[in-house]
Amino acid sequence: MSNVASRSQIHTGSHWGLYDAEVQDGHLMAVKPFAKDPHPTPLITAMPSAVYHESRILRPMVRRGFLEHGPGSDRTGRGVEPFVPVSWDEALDLIAAELMRAKNTYGNEGIYASSGWASAGVFHNAGTQLYRFLNCLGGYVSQVTNYSFGAASVIVPHIVGTMAPVIGPHTAWPTLRDHTRLMVMFGGMAPKNAQVSMGGVGRHKSIDWLAELRQAGVTSVNISPIRSDAADLLEAEWLPIRPNADTALMLGLAHTLVVEGLHDEAFLERYCVGFDKFRAYLLGQVDGQPKNATWAAAITDIPAETIRGLARRMAAVRTMLAVSWSVQRADHGEQPYWTAITLAAMLGQVGLPGGGFGFGYGASSGSGSPRPRMPQLKLPTGENPVKAVIPVARVADMLLHPGAPFAFNGERLTYPDIRLVYWCGCSPFHKVQDLTRLLRD
Q1: Of 180, 131, 199, 128, residue with least CA distance to 365
Q2: What CATH number is given to the structural domain containing 435?
Q3: Mean pLDDT, to the nearest integer, of 224-242?
Q4: What is the pLDDT of residue 1?
Q5: Confidence at residue 5, expressed as pLDDT on a 0 to 100 scale
Q6: Distance (Å, rounded) from C-alpha 369 to C-alpha 38?
Q7: I need a surface site. Which of 79, 207, 286, 366 has the fewest CB within 10 A?
Q8: Is 321 part of a structural domain of the chain?
Q9: Does a structural domain hold residue 228?
């Protein structure tokens, strides 16, 4: 019998898709894509080399200065001292002692916990296990929002009362195929992003849905600095825009709708609040500057007549405004989402099949895919008695400025004085912006 024939195959799920792990004598030798996945990602082929890569940490490691001198010792060695391998028993004892020291000395308000994706799934989830464990210890300072759509998670519920337009369920691909005639994609809809999902991918179908949209005659407009942010098979019109100028473009479109009488006054009157104030701003009655297509063209680098023409096309047919998560990862990132919802309301198509707005199509695998409505399986984490929270992207601010006030979501909060950070499932240096500030912590 050949070596290949003697390998066992283990069905495995990951963020990148399902695959069969070929194992021989306890070693991962190769992976085979899930047979029913029509478009398996090549990312899974890296799994064997990742498992055995020399950069992997195979046992607990402790910084030498901490191991030899304990907590409160000279911290100048952080980042330069070598790490020393220790046994699992010793590592567990060190962690337990530090947790109890922090709890007894500073209280649970001095402990901060955070996590990344790590393993896909419900039980083997780094964050769930960490938060469940620390809740049993008396709680911890937690994080709110996320790095994927942090600005959206704050602003969207204030406007429409729910997070559904961001995290789903979205208007499904079959509905878009059958009813949408124009798909305007702010930030594009990069097909590469649909290879991955936080909870794992079964079958990669996004590219097939995009093909069905094109075959059904849906016209797509890719508004992005990058042409490849739309799949080639969509044959999308490309409007290259200056980065972080999406809100200006939306205002220029909205201005055209108003001055040409293309907006749905009846819908705005019945279902919306505050359009009179927005219209006054749009027409320049607030600051003397009409937000017309000419004004928007100077900011976006998209010609004014192109902006006017797109607004007219949007009003003429069933239009879906699809906004990527990427456009809100910027200064004033709330603004493009708020304005996109306003623009969709002006078209009067919110709630109609294939019309309205949706955020994050193509941002991860499964966005827009039809799925049954059912409760999401979760491992209970218990209750956290500590109510202090910080926005996830404010970690460096919290560590650098304990006790300082900060504004978040309409409230004035205070950064806690954190003395122990418990982080698992990723490295903060893979996620946090402005790494030089994090290094100073």
Answers
A1: 199
A2: 3.40.50.740
A3: 97
A4: 46
A5: 61
A6: 15
A7: 79
A8: yes
A9: yes
